[in-house]
Amino acid sequence: MVQLINVSSADCDICNLPGGTPQGVESLLQRYGLDGIEFMVCDAKDTGLFPRRIVRGIHLWFYPSWMHFWRGNEELLARDYAPEQVRCIFGDSREEWLTRFRDNFRVAGACGAEYAVFHVAHAGQGEIFARNFFYDDRDVVEGTIEVVRELVSALPQECMLLYENLWWPGLTFRDPALAVRLIEETPHERTGFMLDTGHLMNTNWDLRTEEEGVDYVLDTIEGLARCDEELAARIRGLHLHQSLSGAHARTVQEAARRGEMPERPTPHESIDYVLRIDRHAPLHTARAREIVDRVRPQWLVHEFIPTDTTDWEEKLAAQTAAIR
Fold first, then answer.
1. Fewer CB atoms inside 10 Å of the end CB: C or N, the chain?
2. What's the Cα-to-Cα distance from 96 to each of 60, 101, 118, 186, rounded to whole Å?
3. Could you tell me the pLDDT band of residue 47, with boundaries at 50, 70 and 90?
4. What residues contact 51, with CB distance under 8 A and at least 6 apart?
5. Using 50, 70 and 90 to split pLDDT, how confident is the model at 204?
6. Taking the mean position of all CA atoms in its chain, how far away is CA 164?
7. Are 258 and 216 in contact (CB under 8 A)?
8. Quick check: 158 pLDDT over 90?
9. What is the Cα–Cα distance from 193 to 260, expressed in whole angstroms?
10. pLDDT in tens, 234-285
């Protein structure tokens, strides 16, 4: 099992490494006995920011609200983005967006990555508080299949494509049949899943303790195995962390349905909400090892959103000790 940390090329990530430079990542890896990084490349010029020998995975770009653009629903797209934002984010046509996205897939080859992670989710900006979604899980999975079919040829054949679950409509692992469909309809031989434990916990607002969270993750994996043991075996990677934010999510939803939340949140309001519910906190319970032992992942990513170097090290120390 390869153990990694997540790092992007954004300044807000780099400054939290020891010394505030890319070179600081190696001392962090050495101190905690880790093998490398899962890298999100924000710009193609950043591919050489870290040595190829430590870049084991690539996290592909994620567009939280993209289905309206893909489906050509201009009315709903205008609710989420101003025209200049649409041009900036997607371009002027499907093909322009696909060309940009295809270049991001090529980054995996440029960095020598062993796997690439693709989020399967959509949530309109005005839908996140009240959770009244225009598309359901099946809609988003079908849209994802269409997009990935256009892009996956840019991924090296030896590089695994790992679909990651979220709590928005898309791949949540609550319906094994949709997970099966993703595998069957992706024209890339090496395809599997990156199970994000915190994202999975976000699908159950009744969880209150880490032990309950671990039980929920294990029950979900067994549900996949009951559908098809091979399906559970397709979980090749873990984004390991915890998020017990159901009480907050429910409070916000109730406030939104009373009309007390903005119908069109600003980017700051959206990001603040997401960070409050998707906490990326470390698992402290030794039962975290049960998840690792059940999955037996090829890649385990200690995935956090640190506020500074000390915070990053404290989280790493807690979670590596828990699974040890």
1. C
2. 17, 9, 19, 22
3. very high
4. none
5. very high
6. 6
7. no
8. yes
9. 37
10. 999 999 999 999 999 999 999 999 999 998 898 899 999 999 999 999 999 9
Helix (H, G, I), strand (E, B) or coil at 22: coil
Instruction: Give the CATH number for residue 103.
Output: 3.20.20.150
| Of the candidate ranges 147-151, 224-228, 235-239, the one whose mean pLDDT is the lowest | 224-228
Strands 235-240, 36-40: parallel, antiparallel or unpaired by DSSP?
unpaired
CB 134 within 8 A of CB 66: no
Rounded to the nearest angstrom, the gap between the alpha carbon of residue 255 and the centroid of all alpha carbons in its chain is 27
- Give pLDDT, residue 258: 95
- How many domains, in total, are found in the chain? 1
Taking alpha carbons only, the member of 199, 173, 197 closest to residue 288 is 197
User: What would the two tokens of residue 305 be?
Assistant: 């959103």
Contacts of 254 (CB under 8 A, 6+ apart): none
What token pair was written down for 129?
Answer: 């508080």
What size, in residues, is the chain? Answer: 324
Strand partners, 237: 194, 299
What's the pTM?
Answer: 0.97
- Give the residue carrying structure tokens 């309001």: 269
